[in-house]
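Record filed below.
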Amino acid sequence: MKLCRFSRNQSIRIGKIAGDKVVDLSQVTGPQASMRQVIERLPELRAALEDVSAPAFPLADVMLLAPIDDPQKFLAIGMNYLAHANEAAAAGIPIPTSQLWFNKQVSCIAGPFDPIELPRVSDKLDYEAELGFVIGRRCHDVPEQQALDMVAGYFVCNDVSVRDWQARSPTFTLGKSFDTHGPIGPWITTADEIPDPHALTLHLSVNGEERQRSSTGDMIYNISQQIAYLSTVMTLMPGDIIATGTPSGVGIATGTFLRDGDVVTVEVEGLGAISNRVVAEA
């Protein structure tokens, strides 16, 4: 299934994508349910969600929202593709010897087609195409061989970064957490539809010009290793979202940063695409 949040007639609902339509799942989830609640109950709700066929609305008649807007955690790994680690090293950032994690504060989450703000305080706005995933089960200290069982689904992510603010703190958090700098979507594709998350092509373009292209198989630390590592430290909860790193081609490598009016599109094979226009902060 492709699970989404959508707005129609000023009402926000949970839905599923069926071709060029979105099917309203409220009769199963209830009209006030959050995606985090649906993810937590997905095993028991799945059969009923799959059976719903109406009401359905054309995608053109609804607004797709961030598929999950209330996770407890938004975690992201840095320099997890070798070519990107090498370009970061060339910019003076040492290559880490272990998994490098940071928080994106959940207030940065934006929808798949929402604007990205160019903040007044910086001209170093950058993009990072990433595969994201959402945790489906409460888990702690997960062995690598069981880790993928903890994944509820996958989505497209742009780990938008304000590079000068990122450099001000060794945790990266400030430069990764400006409002609107976590666009995700366009929906969550459940894990059963993605047999191998490490065999997907991801690419990013700015104004139609390709800047990044790679395979998720080029990760230094795969998703199983990421979950095992994180869950050694903390309990991961249903709805927690994790971004798995970006390949080479980011703007900081060439000094080519995003400007007002730029349109950034990220696509991951089998998961759809998100596209966000850069708008100067008012």
Notes: The chain has seven helices and 19 strands.
